[in-house]
């Protein structure tokens, strides 16, 4: 270098050929540009520059410099970089790998630094116009240099770079978080125990946490100097953040619904930002003045760094929300199942969902979760209802527009429609009978006077500013969001689209309850009916009111008749205390008709009661339903007495017959009672269980007067299954439908007689046409009709061939 | 063995002792009530005419009130007289 300068000087003073001078000036300037350490004075350089400018060579300087950079990069720097990075193939220590990474980058910087400062100098000259230079200035020149560097260096980077960077960042991250957050070294896989440093994961005495942090600082500076941060780090940082958030969420939030995680994560993310601040610290003035404060972006004041951080903060939030939503969507079914407890989770999810546009995903996943976990035959209807109710409650928190609720629960509603006992379960829930859906009863008694009709009232007059359009995934139905009810009871009732079914069912349930009651105590039923009246409207509950009134009337009639009886002399009194529930048959649901011959004494008592009733209410009479009601009785045996047994009339009738004769066969009893043998057999089980009767042999039963052998017997009969769960007195829905369909049989027969043969669809549409008056046909779907016709076919009352029904030829 | 019945609670339904099912005026069942009533039985009784036709009391009264000239049984067109 010295020599060159001398040469140049001599050239200038001696003034030999100008070519020589120009060459010297070129040498001097280029040397000055690429080797900043050289000792030339600025003045000399400027002179040479002026000479070059004079000869019109100034503009070539930039081109030359970039060209040289490019050649140097591709010939030596880049290969050296990659081989340096790959070199410690067999090194196992993470710490060494980190330092290799840093060294490689440091070498890279060292190699490139001369060019960068040269470019800067040239740029400054260009700006100042020294030696007639003009050009884009330092920034643009460097920009082009960096582009070249990036292009050559990272054109096809081997995976090793990404791996190393990722490893390095993960390590420094955990070190940083460990130092910042104390116990929160989420990265430490083996925990603080076992003598390992939670930060760097090696034994405490070999801890290199501080070293790692220093390395991070250097690394960040080098990258920012080379403007490679974005290219080298972004991907690694993104994947680290993604992984860490996921990991942390997996550890902390999965399965944990009773606590909100938003704030916690917010704080954590802020700490992570501190680390990011280190990664993206772009401090330009050397390694000298690095204070802790310099890592905080705002203090640093450098515009790009803080905006980069701002960007990362957004990214992180986005990550967080997305990961959180993903996880919660997966768990949504469980969240719904535990709803009132899982409210915080729902609120978090709501917050995040608003930011991630994953509603569609949520809907699909929730729907399929319902279908796979809830809607199959193994799940009890009341459980489905319970989940549905929770879902209503949870989803209306999640989405006040109710669209998610409406769409996601569609399968449930559809499925519930196919379950036979849905209505019964809902009604049982409403009346507080079902232990499973207790919510319904409380929901009902909350007594929102939101009757179903109320929703019709149009409140269009509301403030138009408040208008919130439906989300785009709303089902396009004619009911607007106004009508999308969130009321649990309305939703349940609307499963069938008509409240009549519910009211009929409620009537049946009410009838059951009233008939099983002995003491005319109807306070609770009255309350329920009043509450239901608020919901369904007065007119719909009219029948139920009459039923309740019947109960009150019956009590009055009973006490009246009792009074009359008490006036009679001892021997005129009826032999048994009979009270009655007198029904207005038109208002009660159809009661099951069963035949039962009661013992003569009971019949006489009933006749006497009827006579008194006829006297009390002119022109009215009673018809008894012998199988309904209940009997309280004592059974006195030789060595023991069973007192205060409450049984059904048929049980009472059976045991009373055993008074006359201590041994009966099944046939005899069946004949005597006018009841099928199977039923008698079933009913006998109760008395066997009580140890009163014993099956001796082949359908012969006798009284066990002596209880000595009772225990043995007890054990023997335990196995007899008694179906003493309360049989419903009212005909079930399907039976009623059956009856209604039976009505059509006459029509169908007539049609087939006239038209010879018809398809199923034709029969259905004809029925619709002819019998359009009642609500029955519109409710009857074609499948039901088909099932009905199939049964007729089995009973040989119809013939079907190739989808056409016809009547069988009458002989 | 002896069975002592303490209490027998039976169930029965009441009905009018009438020769028809439905009221000839409103076509509603006698055991129900006329369209204006809510509660059957005592609150919506039947009445018999001397022609032995019977109706809901409210129905026949409404009918009789609407007849300006002569009060006839709507079924048999005989003069309507309440059966004592």
From TrEMBL, chain A:
Q: One biological-process term from Gene Ontology?
A: protein K11-linked ubiquitination
One GO term describing the cellular component: anaphase-promoting complex
Which InterPro entries has this protein been placed in? Answer: ANAPC2, ANAPC2_C, Cullin-like_AB, Cullin_homology, Cullin_homology_sf, TPR_ANAPC2, WH-like_DNA-bd_sf, WH_DNA-bd_sf
GO molecular function list: ubiquitin protein ligase binding
Give the pathway. Answer: Protein modification; protein ubiquitination
| Acidic residues biased stretches | 455-468
Q: What does this protein do?
A: Together with the RING-H2 protein ANAPC11, constitutes the catalytic component of the anaphase promoting complex/cyclosome (APC/C), a cell cycle-regulated E3 ubiquitin ligase that controls progression through mitosis and the G1 phase of the cell cycle. The APC/C complex acts by mediating ubiquitination and subsequent degradation of target proteins: it mainly mediates the formation of 'Lys-11'-linked polyubiquitin chains and, to a lower extent, the formation of 'Lys-48'- and 'Lys-63'-linked polyubiquitin chains.
Q: Describe, as the record does, how this protein assembles with itself and its partners.
A: The mammalian APC/C is composed at least of 14 distinct subunits ANAPC1, ANAPC2, CDC27/APC3, ANAPC4, ANAPC5, CDC16/APC6, ANAPC7, CDC23/APC8, ANAPC10, ANAPC11, CDC26/APC12, ANAPC13, ANAPC15 and ANAPC16 that assemble into a complex of at least 19 chains with a combined molecular mass of around 1.2 MDa; APC/C interacts with FZR1 and FBXO5. In the context of the APC/C complex, directly interacts with UBE2C and UBE2S. Interacts (via cullin domain) with ANAPC11 and with UBCH10. Interacts with NEUROD2. Interacts with FBXO43; the interaction is direct.
Q: What is this protein called?
A: Anaphase-promoting complex subunit 2
Q: Which organism is it from?
A: Crenichthys baileyi (White River springfish)
From TrEMBL, chain B:
Q: Which domain of life is it from?
A: Eukaryota
Extract the Gene3D superfamilies matched here: Zinc/RING finger domain, C3HC4 (zinc finger)
**Mainly resides where?**
nucleus
The record's annotation in InterPro entries points to: RING-box_E3_Ubiquitin_Ligase (IPR051031), RING-H2_APC11 (IPR024991), Znf_RING (IPR001841), Znf_RING/FYVE/PHD (IPR013083)
- Pathway membership, UniProt: Protein modification; protein ubiquitination
Q: Please give a single GO biological process term from the UniProt record.
A: anaphase-promoting complex-dependent catabolic process
> What is its subcellular localisation?
Nucleus
A cellular component annotation (GO) from this entry:
anaphase-promoting complex
A GO molecular-function descriptor: ubiquitin protein ligase activity
- Which keywords accompany this UniProt record? Cell cycle, Cell division, Metal-binding, Mitosis, Nucleus, Ubl conjugation pathway, Zinc, Zinc-finger
Q: What CDD domains does the record point to?
A: RING-H2_APC11
RING-type domain location is: 34-77
Keyword Zinc-finger listed = yes
Cell cycle among keywords: yes
Q: Name one Pfam family in it.
A: zf-ANAPC11
Q: Kindly give the PANTHER family that the UniProt entry links to this protein.
A: RING BOX
Give the family per the record. Belongs to the RING-box family.
Function, as annotated: Together with the cullin protein ANAPC2, constitutes the catalytic component of the anaphase promoting complex/cyclosome (APC/C), a cell cycle-regulated E3 ubiquitin ligase that controls progression through mitosis and the G1 phase of the cell cycle. The APC/C complex acts by mediating ubiquitination and subsequent degradation of target proteins: it mainly mediates the formation of 'Lys-11'-linked polyubiquitin chains and, to a lower extent, the formation of 'Lys-48'- and 'Lys-63'-linked polyubiquitin chains.
Q: How does it assemble?
A: The mammalian APC/C is composed at least of 14 distinct subunits ANAPC1, ANAPC2, CDC27/APC3, ANAPC4, ANAPC5, CDC16/APC6, ANAPC7, CDC23/APC8, ANAPC10, ANAPC11, CDC26/APC12, ANAPC13, ANAPC15 and ANAPC16 that assemble into a complex of at least 19 chains with a combined molecular mass of around 1.2 MDa; APC/C interacts with FZR1 and FBXO5. Interacts with the cullin domain of ANAPC2. Interacts with UBE2D2.
Provide the protein name: Anaphase-promoting complex subunit 11
Species, as recorded: Crenichthys baileyi
């Amino acid at each position: 270098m010295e020599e060159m300068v001398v040469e140049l000087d001599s050239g200038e003073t001696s003034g030999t050929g100008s070519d020589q001078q120009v060459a010297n000036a070129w040498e001097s300037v280029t040397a000055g540009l690429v080797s900043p350490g050289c000792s030339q004075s600025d003045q000399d350089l400027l002179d040479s520059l002026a000479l070059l400018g004079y000869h019109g060579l100034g503009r070539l300087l930039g081109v030359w410099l970039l060209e040289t950079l490019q050649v140097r990069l591709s010939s030596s720097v880049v290969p050296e970089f990659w081989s340096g990075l790959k070199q410690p193939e067999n090194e196992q220590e993470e710490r060494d790998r980190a330092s290799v990474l840093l060294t490689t980058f440091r070498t890279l910087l060292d190699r490139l630094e001369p060019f960068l400062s040269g470019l800067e100098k040239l740029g400054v000259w260009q700006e100042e116009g020294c030696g007639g230079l003009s050009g884009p200035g330092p920034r643009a020149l460097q920009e082009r240099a960096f582009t070249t560097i990036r292009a050559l260096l990272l054109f096809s980077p081997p995976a090793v770079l990404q791996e190393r960077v990722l490893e390095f960042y993960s390590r420094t991250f955990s070190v940083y978080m460990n130092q910042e957050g104390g116990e929160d070294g989420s990265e430490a896989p083996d925990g603080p125990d076992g003598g390992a440093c939670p930060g760097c994961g090696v034994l405490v005495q070999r801890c290199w946490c501080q070293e790692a942090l220093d390395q991070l600082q250097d690394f960040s500076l080098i990258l920012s100097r080379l403007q490679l941060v974005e290219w080298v780090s972004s991907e690694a940082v993104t994947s680290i953040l993604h992984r860490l958030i996921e990991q942390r969420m997996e550890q902390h939030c999965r399965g944990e619904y009773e606590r909100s995680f938003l704030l916690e994560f917010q704080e954590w993310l802020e700490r992570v930002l501190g680390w990011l601040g280190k990664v993206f610290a772009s401090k330009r003035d050397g390694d000298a003045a690095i204070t802790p404060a310099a890592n905080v972006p705002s203090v640093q004041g450098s515009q790009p760094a803080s905006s980069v951080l701002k960007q990362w903060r957004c990214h992180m939030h986005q990550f967080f929300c997305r990961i959180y939503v993903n996880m919660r969507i997966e768990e949504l079914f469980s969240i719904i199942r535990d709803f009132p407890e899982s409210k915080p989770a729902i609120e978090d999810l709501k917050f995040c969902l608003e930011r991630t546009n994953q509603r569609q995903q949520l809907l699909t996943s929730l729907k399929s979760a319902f279908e796979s976990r809830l809607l199959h035959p193994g799940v009890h209807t009341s459980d489905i209802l319970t989940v549905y109710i929770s879902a209503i409650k949870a989803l209306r928190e999640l989405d006040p527009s109710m669209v998610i609720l409406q769409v996601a629960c569609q399968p449930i509603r559809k499925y519930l429609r196919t379950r036979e006992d849905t209505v019964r379960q809902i009604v049982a829930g409403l009346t507080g009978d079902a232990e499973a859906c207790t919510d319904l009863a409380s929901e009902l008694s909350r007594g929102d006077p939101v009757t179903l009709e109320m929703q019709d009232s149009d409140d269009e007059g509301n403030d138009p500013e408040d208008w919130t359009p439906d989300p785009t995934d709303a089902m396009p139905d004619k009911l607007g969001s106004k009508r999308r009810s969130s009321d649990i009871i309305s939703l349940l009732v609307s499963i069938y689209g008509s409240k009549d079914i519910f009211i009929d069912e409620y009537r049946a349930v009410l009838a059951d309850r009233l008939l099983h009651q002995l003491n005319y105590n109807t306070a609770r039923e009255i309350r329920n009916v009043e509450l239901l009246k608020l919901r369904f409207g007065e007119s719909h509950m009219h029948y139920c009111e009459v039923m309740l009134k019947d109960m009150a009337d019956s009590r009055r009639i009973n006490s009246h008749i009792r009074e009359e009886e008490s006036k009679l002399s001892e021997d005129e009194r009826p032999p048994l205390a009979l009270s009655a529930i007198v029904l207005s048959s038109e208002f009660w649901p159809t009661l099951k008709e069963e035949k039962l011959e009661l013992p003569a004494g009971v019949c006489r008592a009933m006749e006497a009661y009827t006579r008194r009733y006829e006297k009390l209410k002119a022109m009215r009479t009673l018809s008894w339903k012998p199988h309904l009601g209940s009997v309280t009785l004592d059974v006195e045996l030789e060595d023991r007495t069973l007192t205060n047994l409450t049984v059904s009339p048929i049980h009472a009738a059976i045991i009373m017959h055993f008074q006359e004769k201590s041994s009966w066969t099944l046939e005899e009893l069946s004949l005597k009672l006018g009841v099928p043998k199977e039923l008698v057999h079933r009913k006998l089980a109760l008395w066997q269980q009580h140890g009163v009767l014993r099956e001796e042999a082949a359908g012969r039963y006798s009284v066990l007067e002596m209880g000595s052998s009772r225990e043995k017997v007890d054990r023997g009969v335990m196995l007899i299954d008694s179906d003493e769960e309360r049989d419903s007195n009212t005909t079930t829905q399907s039976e009623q439908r059956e009856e209604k369909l039976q009505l059509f049989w006459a029509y169908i027969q007539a049609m087939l007689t006239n038209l010879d043969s018809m398809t199923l669809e034709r029969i259905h549409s004809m029925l619709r046409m002819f019998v359009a008056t009642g609500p029955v046909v519109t409710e009857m779907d074609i499948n039901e009709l088909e099932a009905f016709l199939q049964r007729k076919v089995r009973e040989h009352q119809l013939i079907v061939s190739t989808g056409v029904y016809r009547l069988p030829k009458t002989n | 063995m002896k069975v002592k019945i303490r209490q027998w609670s039976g169930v029965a339904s009441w009905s009018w002792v009438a020769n028809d099912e439905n009221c000839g005026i409103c076509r509603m069942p006698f055991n129900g009530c006329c369209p204006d009533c809510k509660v059957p039985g005592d609150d919506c009784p039947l009445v018999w005419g001397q022609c032995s036709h019977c109706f809901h009391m409210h129905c026949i009264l409404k009918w009789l009130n609407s007849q300006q000239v002569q009060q006839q049984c709507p079924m048999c067109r005989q003069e309507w007289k309440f059966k004592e």
